[in-house]
Amino acid sequence: AQKVTQAQTEISVVEKEDVTLDCVYETRDTTYYLFWYKQPPSGELVFLIRRNSFDEQNEISGRYSWNFQKSTSSFNFTITASQVVDSAVYFCALSENTGNQFYFGTGTSLTVIP
Amino acid sequence: DAGVIQSPRHEVTEMGQEVTLRCKPISGHDYLFWYRQTMMRGLELLIYFNNNVPIDDSGMPEDRFSAKMPNASFSTLKIQPSEPRDSAVYFCASSFGLADSPLHFGNGTRLTVT
């Protein structure tokens, strides 16, 4: 079974629209960590945010915000007023305190159309 | 901080040749990971080291792949002999810890085996 599911394979939005990227995870650990990474067309993987399982507060960083809900095992990522530079593949990842690796989702390819 | 440094950025080689990919982790990070990214399989963990010692190499596809970390500032991933199906982007990443620390990725090496 997939530990991290990103059901949206591709999303296209017009510039300035808001967009939410979904991430659903699966774990039996009580302590775990969730991450989002951005992979722009240039190919590098850029760390965006880390959340631990005990902190359900939503986080906002500029136009980016993250909604962590343990009740639905989701860690969704919203970009407000999207820009062309937001075009990238976004990966959600999970690591478990008892485990030894990151579990990456399959990624969501976001295209922001000018 | 220079970040994780990988070389070369691109490698094109013929089937049967030996390929060596190089990585310099972020200073002070005690974990180093090698990942492979393909369209079909996404991001796959190949091997990771802790304090220069290989901990889990269960992701290494076969004996043609080997990885070493002779010191805290250098690691290599070697493929010998290379095959066309090894064509992928290979990422090196480092981190302070295992579960709770984000991975910091290098820019990757795009390998093409003809």
How would you characterize the overall build of this protein?
- Chain A contains no helices and 12 strands.
- Chain A is an all-beta fold and 114 residues long.
- Chain B is mostly beta strands and 114 residues long.
- In chain B, strands 2, 4, 5, 6, 9, 10 and 11 form a 7-stranded mixed sheet that branches.
- In chain B, strand 7 (65-71) and strand 8 form a beta hairpin.
- The model of chain B has no long low-confidence stretch (mean pLDDT 95).
- Chains A and B meet through strand 5, strand 6 and strand 10 of A and strand 5, strand 9 and strand 10 of B.
Number of helices of chain A: 0
Summarize the main sheet of chain B.
Answer: 7 strands, mixed
Greatest contact between two chains: A-B, 23 and 20 residues
Structural class of chain A: mainly beta
The radius of gyration of chain B is: 13 Å
Distance between the termini of chain B: 36 Å
Quote the beta fraction of chain A.
Answer: over 45%
Question: What is the element layout, followed by pairings?
Answer:
The complex is a heterodimer of chains A (114) and B (114).
Chain A: E1 4-5, E2 10-14, E3 19-21, E4 24-25, E5 32-39, E6 46-52, E7 59-61, E8 64-69, E9 74-79, E10 88-96, E11 102-104, E12 108-113
Parallel strand pairs in A: 2-12
Antiparallel strand pairs in A: 1-4, 3-9, 5-6, 5-10, 7-8, 8-9, 10-11, 10-12
Chain B: E1 5-7, E2 10-13, E3 19-24, E4 31-38, E5 42-50, E6 53-56, E7 65-71, E8 74-79, E9 88-95, E10 104-105, E11 109-113
Parallel strand pairs in B: 2-11
Antiparallel strand pairs in B: 1-3, 3-8, 4-5, 4-9, 5-6, 7-8, 9-10, 9-11
